[in-house]
Write a structure and sequence with these properties.
Layout (H helix, E strand, L loop, with lengths): L2 H15 L15 E8 L7 H16 L7 E5 L34 E2 L5 H9 L18 E8 L2 E2 L2 E4 L3 E4 H13 L5 E7 L15 E5 L12 E2 L4 E2 L3 H10 L10 H4 L5 H4 L4 E3 L13 H4 L46
Parallel strand pairs: 1-2, 1-4, 2-3, 4-8, 8-9
Antiparallel strand pairs: 5-6, 6-7, 9-12, 10-11
Helix pairs in contact: 2-5
């Protein structure tokens, strides 16, 4: 009986000694599905641009093929329904009003005060309460490529949620490590547009993560332009140029993630875009942009098809009709025909 606890301790010690490189065999060569987690963490009318940011990315990934069932959209404040909005039920990302990014088919999964640090971490790690609707769950697996996009107000090592709480860079790193340990992703593209954005991915230590931030530590991430009709800035610079790139690609594009990482040079962004590649195994210039922003639909082509007859017994048998329950009664005579 004493051997069982000893064996258990040996197994625990062995598992704890495994490194990420030794656990790589658990994941397939390629991914099988794509998901997107898009989060706007700020509130109030003057943060209109943050809602426009997240809805712009939402529109792009949906246009490139990721269905709403695999997109988690979190918006802390609904600018389309804000009483200050002179154009109700619309959100535009440029002053010329070319694109209404709110549209008629936006599916918001977490809205208003549901956008909290706790709900965000629970979503990533899969630790949701029983009975949580499917639309509020990130149902990823070991073959999932996940795009995580965050926008809002941040600082050195933290991102604010609704001006009432914050998630730190260490908490973000630990949440992604839980995802890895629970085999909830194959690769992650972490994209954040906020002040001092690069500080949010500095503590990442899980494999297969490619990260980009709109500004380095000590730098602000700036807005692009004002819409005079509503009196506020309507999109941030980094997301504006990222959207400009995405609007020129389709599902069959040859564009790569390496090209996407260079969409906003400092002369137009003013801030310095930060990129972290050391945790990502592949060369970004060889990774199609649709690996994260598009949809993956595995198709198996079957060339040799053998038709098998479903009839196993070829002997002809005489069918026996069941006896009739009622005898046949002829219809009544039509007396009008006799007269």
């Amino acid at each position: 009986m004493a051997l069982f606890p000893l064996f258990t301790l040996i197994c625990v010690a062995f598992c704890a000694s495994l490194t990420h490189s030794q656990l790589d065999f658990q994941f397939p060569e390629g991914h099988t599905n794509n998901w997107a987690v898009l989060v706007d963490t700020s509130r109030f009318w003057f943060n209109y641009r943050h809602v426009a940011n997240v809805l712009s990315i939402y529109r792009s990934v949906k246009r490139l093929g990721i269905p709403d069932s695999q997109i988690i959209l979190m918006i802390a404040d609904d600018m389309a329904c804000n009483p200050r909005n002179p154009r109700p039920a619309t959100v535009f990302n440029n002053a010329n009003q070319h694109i209404n990014v709110y549209g008629d088919d936006v599916e918001v999964d977490y809205r208003g005060y549901e956008v909290t640090v706790e709900n965000f971490v629970r979503l990533l790690t899969g630790r949701l309460p029983p009975g949580t609707p499917r639309s509020k769950q990130l149902l990823t697996d070991e073959g999932s490529n996940v795009l995580i996009y965050l926008t809002g107000h941040g600082g050195d090592g933290f991102l604010k949620f609704q001006d009432s709480e914050e998630i730190t860079s260490q908490e973000m790193a630990d949440a992604l490590e839980q995802m890895w340990q629970k085999q909830r992703y194959h690769e992650i593209f972490f994209m954040i547009d906020t002040c001092q954005a690069a500080s949010m991915y500095e503590r990442f230590y899980s494999p297969n993560i490619l990260a980009v931030g709109s500004s380095l530590v000590g730098e602000d991430s700036l807005s692009h332009h004002v819409d005079p009709a509503i009196g506020v800035y309507i999109i941030d610079r980094y997301t504006y140029y990222a959207l400009e790139f995405l609007e020129n690609v389709d599902q069959h594009t040859k564009k790569t993630m390496g090209e996407f990482l260079n969409v906003c040079p400092k002369r137009v962004c003013i801030s310095t875009v930060g990129v972290r590649r050391d945790l990502f195994k592949r060369n970004p210039h060889e990774v199609p942009i649709t690996d994260f922003f598009g949809s993956v639909r595995p198709i198996e082509v079957i060339s040799n098809v053998t038709l098998v007859s479903l009839v196993t017994n070829t002997t002809k048998t005489k069918s026996v009709m069941p006896p009739k329950k009622y005898r046949y009664i002829p219809p009544l005579v039509n007396f009008n025909s006799i007269l």
